[in-house]
Amino acid sequence: EPEVTQTPSHQVTQMGQEVILRCVPISNHLYFYWYRQILGQKVEFLVSFYNNEISEKSEIFDDQFSVERPDGSNFTLKIRSTKLEDSAMYFCASSDRRGALGELFFGEGSRLTVL
Amino acid sequence: RKEVEQDPGPFNVPEGATVAFNCTYSNSASQSFFWYRQDCRKEPKLLMSVYSSGNEDGRFTAQLNRASQYISLLIRDSKLSDSATYLCVVKNLSESASKIIFGSGTRLSIRP
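YS: structure for the whole thing
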């Protein structure tokens, strides 16, 4: 069964460092998303991406965040200067042409720990 | 009012019991509704979509009440493996894209 894959599974970084989280969405999917979940809290929408551009972003997704689809298969989330409060599980998700139905397929997540 | 609201639980029920929980949403323009399941420290996984007429998948029944703006999930003959957090997910169609909103989840614990 096709799946969304994410790397790394866990990254520990120092405050102020840049972090890049990588995702390989399901190959025929067109819509891509990043969500985050702080431990014990709800899954929060960060950004959606379609047709090589951001289609929507939340207020969490400020100037320190960026996304890119550099090569047609990877979908990356960059955090430029990490803060302690960025510590969370970051989930990548994708959905297919019927993405309007909203069925999301999630990767296993990348746990980010900022010290 | 929160966009999507769920009773956090935990619901602690014996194996074999029937359990139900609701989720309310605030935006009457919401179009699509889902239940996801999330195991501890794992990714959310789609459990079932919720259709206007209600739908059933084995022991799971989902219903939508547009007038009162809530969806429900009923689990019959609960199994130990049903222990998880159940996330209500609502899709609103904005001008530019679909925005998918997660509830905070309802924790369910099935005891032997």
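YS: worth flagging: Chain A has a mean pLDDT of 91.
IM: good catch. Also The first strand of chain A starts at residue 5 and ends at 7.
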